[in-house]
Amino acid sequence: KASLPLVIATWNVPNATAKAWDVLQNNGSVLDAVEQGVMVEEADEKNQSVGKGGRPDRDGNVTLDACIMNKEGDCGAVVYMQNITHAITVARKVMEDTPHVMLAGKGAEQFAVESGMKRENLLTDASKKEWEDWLVEKEYKPIINIENHDTIGMLAIDKNGDISGACTTSGLAYKMAGRVGDSPIIGSGLFVDNEVGGAVATGLGEEVVKTVGSFLVVELMRQGKSPQEACEEAIGRIVTKPNSNYKNFQVGYIAVNKQGETGSYSIHEWFSMTKYQDGKNENYQSDFYLK
Ligand code: SD4
């Protein structure tokens, strides 16, 4: 049996997993752990895929997507939200303080401000400069891989075996205004079932949504697959579609089951998972489909 607690996250995000681990060590809840863990990346202006410092859409607006899910199976999400750094906290407030599961755009921002969060400019000089350079050619193609810095999805399982998950992103750089990806969609970007396990996705959100990826991974684990096998089969659903263009985009999944076994798999090389377990905080290169 795997040693608990443990925390896993998409990509190389040791500061985020360390924060979540600290919360668990200090008897914080598993929900606090994933929320506070991903907040580290939201606040980090150097991570240009999440929160403050995120890359904008084509019009220069940073728009955030996030969702969170607790061990009771409740969830909350914000989509297309601007001017608030900690989208995950707003998602949690949607879950806990409203009768709804999802708020979008202006309504999400208004709710955040009414809940005491402050408006901030999320477009940093660095991301603004890159966007201005992009405007010259305006060539739009999904970026296959951004090593180290990307959408953060996190799953944690506490010493009692209870699971929670969080996912937060600024979405694809230079997306169309109004575009929403997989990350705030429960079942696509994130799914947790405390009886079975949890999964989160990263990469080209459209492809994750089309296959309801994270829900699929969890259901495959329910049928007896290991987290690794489940992630591989969910990637298989994408790459075996007729006319799949998978050579041109990346999707990656990480998963944990109730026993604390973990898995990760992607289409292309260079996806990785950060895992904090047994006091060790390590990054693991993920196995991948396109060899
Ligand atoms: C999206 N899945 O908005 C997110 C972006 C991402 O690696 O994960 N990029 O589609």
UniProtKB/TrEMBL annotation:
Transmembrane segments: none annotated. It holds the Pfam family Asparaginase_2. One of its GO terms (cellular component) is cytoplasm. The keyword Signal applies. The active site is at T151. One of its GO terms (molecular function) is hydrolase activity, acting on carbon-nitrogen (but not peptide) bonds, in linear amides. The record marks D150, T151 as: Cleavage. This is N(4)-(Beta-N-acetylglucosaminyl)-L-asparaginase. Substrate binds at R179, V180, G181, D182, T202, G203, L204, G205. It comes from Hwangdonia lutea. It comes from the Bacteria. Keywords: Signal.
